[in-house]
Amino acid sequence: MTIAEWCIFASVMLYLLTIAPIKWLGFRQFDNANPRDPAFYDDPVRARALGAHLNGIETFPFFAVAVLLAEFRSAPQNLINELAVLFLIVRIAYVFTYLGDRPTLRSILWSIGLAINVGIFFLPMIRGWLPV
Known about the structure:
Elements: H1 3-25, H2 44-72, H3 77-99, H4 103-126
């Protein structure tokens, strides 16, 4: 497996690990029989963790498709790997800014992550202009 493919797996783990500790720390108040109870997320930190988790789910499909498309269409693998690692680093920083209630920085990081995804997606189209 390539580094970029491991980053796809890490992206899934990131959005799961964004919410799991919040549920674990609030286990006395968390009702597993009613896991989507909005009252559990009344706490601001829990609400932000849920927001980061949901955003991770939303961004995952484009990232996974972009990486796999770039690999299937023979874009330079080292560049795919580097951009995938960069995307993962940006997503980790995004989660911390979401949990830390830094909305402006969070939005900037979201935009950078989107730009990285777009770059990965279009790598096959521009590979002729890339250095070998």
